Amino acid sequence: MNVDELLERVNSCADDLDLVAARKYIEENRELLAENRHRLKRNARELLDFILKMQDSGNKALQRNEIAAINAINSYATKFDLRGLKVAVKNHSELILRDDVIPYFNTDAKIMLASMNAIPKS
Fold first, then answer.
1. pLDDT digits (tens, 9 = 90+) for 34-87
2. 20 to 30 Å CA-CA from 56: which of 29, 35, 81, 119?
3. For 114-118, what is the mean pLDDT?
């Protein structure tokens, strides 16, 4: 794929709000797109800046199973299901220890996880 075709695909994905495909193109062609940043449309350029900033700060993107675990923890906390919450915390302890994941928890989950000392109290 040449540069013009890549830029067109990233621009069209960003315009169509197909952010998953745009992200994959950006991650696979990071240096090439950074060099040709000025040729991207505004939405694609903002997405490129965001992804580059996230990668440079050391945060890695959440995988599908990690998002599912966060949603399960939020659901258990909302329903006040302590048994399910404890099992989810036990099974996904490495995920909960990551600092970049805490903003994805809802208020109920943050309160319950902090009371369990699974996350630091804010």
1. 999 999 999 999 999 988 888 887 777 788 899 999 999 999 999 999 999 999
2. 119
3. 91
> Per the confidence metrics, is the pTM higher than 0.85?
no
Q: How far, in whole angstroms, is CA 3 from its chain's centroid? A: 27
Angle between the 64-79 and 82-91 helix axes, to the nearest 10 degrees?
160
What's the rounded Cα separation, in Å, for the pair 50 and 91? 30
Instruction: Provide the pLDDT for residue 91.
Output: 94
Count CA atoms within 13 Å of residue 81 on its CB side: 12
Which pair of structure tokens corresponds to residue 89?
A: 């915390």
| Other residues' Cβ atoms within 10 Å of the Cβ of residue 76 | 21
- Tell me the domain boundaries of the chain: 3-56, 64-116
pLDDT of 67 reads: 92
CB 69 within 8 A of CB 96: no
